[in-house]
Amino acid sequence: MKKPYVIAICQQKGGVGKTTMTINLAATLVRKGYRILAVDIDPQANMSTSMGYLVPDKRPTLYNIITNHISGLSNNLMEAIRTWEAEQVDYIPSNIMMAGVSGSISQYPNYTSVLREILSDPVCNRYDYILIDCKPALDLIVDNALAAADGVIIPAQTEEYALDQLYPTFLQCQKHHAHILGIVCTMYDPRYNAHKGVVEAIHTAYPELAFQQTISRYADYANSLNEKRSVHCVPGGEAKKQLLKLTDEIITRSGKE
Ligand SMILES: Nc1ncnc2c1ncn2[C@@H]1O[C@H](COP(=O)(O)OP(=O)(O)OP(=O)(O)O)[C@@H](O)[C@H]1O
Ligand SMILES: [Mg+2]
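Above: inputs. Below: predicted complex with magnesium ion.
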């Protein structure tokens, strides 16, 4: 049976567009005919909320799945999988309980492999891609995401210090032998010379890693989070075109063409 390709969307800096990328990439991949499971490991649970997760419900969240797993209790992963109906993206939600999960995970012998073990459930083989939306940190749960990932996408907001801010995430990827699929420049605004400079600097420093397609600062992206819909729901729109091109690059690099 074919295994899913696991992508962690990761960068230790907050607010660079990780969640916006996760939900719009998930929706784009579904539109291209791929089956997607999105996993939220961030206690802020922005991805979950954007996909329509309403708390509390009686079903398990990622926190329950992880704590059961490390306690040796059986899990029914299907029960934790909801569907973002508007986009037909399946997802496992996070909640605030995930804020303390790294402490519990540290007690587990294979403490960086918990997420990988959970995602090796046969239920996951029905998906082509699993996207993991990381929190803005490099803690044990993010280590788990990197260790579970076949490829890592690092969003870099096109502002001052963007290049420097990539290093901690690079080092953490190296530590976990995580393959970097690519760096995507986000929230690019051509009206600012500084933004142009940052995009050029990233492409010069990492010509192989930087995705050709840059993501601009557009209201369509910002609205997708709070309006619980992807950029594809807006008629026309440059954001949609960018996403389609970026997704093609991601599909090619992940060998899922
Ligand atoms: N391309 C974009 N254009 C305009 N606004 C954007 C874009 N990408 C993200 N935003 C906005 O920037 C803010 C941060 O985005 P997002 O939540 O995706 O970042 P994040 O890296 O997931 O944050 P955190 O580190 O807190 O998880 C949000 O308000 C979002 O709507
Ligand atoms: Mg986020």
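The beta strands are 5-9, 36-40, 82-84, 89-92, 129-133, 151-157, 180-186.
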